[in-house]
Amino acid sequence: MKVRFLGTAGGRLVTFRLIKRSGGFLVSQNGSYLHVDPGPGAFVYLKELGIDYRDIDLVVLSHLHLDHSADLNTVIEAATDGGKFKNVSLFAPKTAIEGEDRVLLPYLRKRLVKEEFLEEGKELFYKDWKVKAVIKHRHHKTETYGLLINDEIIYVSCAGFEERMLELYPKGKSLMIINTTFYKRRPNVEHLSVEDAEILIRELKPKRAVITHYSMEMLEKNPDEVAKELSEKTGIKVLAAKDGMEVEV
Ligand SMILES: [Zn+2]
Ligand SMILES: [Zn+2]
Asked: Considering 54, 102, 172, 194, which has the largest number of Cβ atoms within 10 A of its Cβ?
């Protein structure tokens, strides 16, 4: 499998002043793509990377916030070739599909092969993809899940740190992607910091980790330097995601 980061923006300024790109990340295997969190710009960035939209078989949404979901409808429409084919599925929190703040256009639901709701502990399958909603995060009262993809890739989406993460996320996986928005912990903001990422990496011991979803504070600290620091402290190879970066799993 390969993971391609369309964008790395996290905080409000970095995302909505387009200091870094957004768009989530793509996982690929055998010509099939799983797109996680198609945030703003994903539709354009996919094209730039030479990806055929019709090869996107599955879209997974960790939560409905705009920086994760802005291009959801466009990516689904593009995957179906403008409604011509029924060839894409969606796994998302129920609130993102049916809630008051839903982000999926209702008329697109019938274009989906399969629509499934993420729930803590539930495993979902489509084609060669297996997605487990490992844990429901604490994230500003929005239904948000951390994911395990094909038993190898952990995605620690936006969250306030909690001890439960160390029990529920599996240990020793190939890759752990961590939305490390802040350098320093901010008690009232439910986003992860470098300090939290260090605990997660040290305790869960993935083979490699990637930090992404940066705020201005993180960019000022230089993500490459932060990743180096984390590698030294944990003894585990940590990479700083870049817009467009690809990682082999
Ligand atoms: Zn969020
Ligand atoms: Zn976010």
From this structure: 194
Protein residues placing their CB within 5 Å of the ion ligand 2: 67, 158
Specify the pLDDT at position 249: 97
Cα of 214 vs centre of ligand 2, distance in Å, is 9
Residues 55-106: pLDDT tens digits?
A: 999 999 999 999 999 999 999 999 999 999 999 999 999 999 999 999 999 9
Q: Which residues surround ligand 1, an ion (CB under 5 A)?
A: 65, 158
Calculate how far, in angstroms, residue 84's C-alpha sits from the geometric centre of ligand 1. Answer: 32
Give the burial string for 198-236 (b: 16+ CB within 10 Å, else e).
bbbbeebebebbbbbbbbbbbbebebeebbeebbeebeb
Residues 6+ apart with CB under 8 A from 180: 10, 192, 193, 194, 196, 197, 211, 212, 213, 214, 218, 226
The overall longest dimension of the chain from CA atoms, in Å, is 51
Q: Which ligand is nearest to the CA of 213?
A: 2
SS3 state of residue 127: coil
Which ligand sits nearest to residue 65's alpha carbon? 1
This prediction's pTM = 0.98
